[in-house]
Amino acid sequence: MDNYCFYEKITKDEEIGKVTDDVVSNIEKYNVNEKNIEKIKKVIYEAEKNIKLYAQSGEIQVELKDNLFKAKFKDQGPGIQNIGLACEDGFSTADDNIKKQGYGLGKGLSLIQENVDYIDIVSIPGVGTTLDVSIEMI
Prior knowledge:
Elements: E1 4-10, H1 18-27, H2 34-54, E2 57-65, E3 68-76, H3 83-86, H4 96-100, H5 108-114, E4 118-124, E5 128-136
Antiparallel strand pairs: 1-2, 2-3, 3-5, 4-5
């Protein structure tokens, strides 16, 4: 498998899903099977959505190399007060504005966890969050 690297800044100006579409359309060129594509799509979408809904700005770095997909998401947002609680299915800190948009169901981090082989979350309240994930390609 050839190597693929991708980097993009994430801003609130873009529609949620744009970065996901950009990454997935490129990864599909590398003969990644559909099961892995679906996992990658879910992970990127949820992380992208969290950045766009909660942070001021952020970035994504993606690497596909030697049958391993890696992604790093960094944001400059409010941070996560309690990472353990935030990873529980159904937990949400979404305000009414976010909920009116149809988001804030508390599925983001738990859905990411379900679809990766490795996850590391580092967050500093008031500074931002870094999420590192990887998926072993089958």
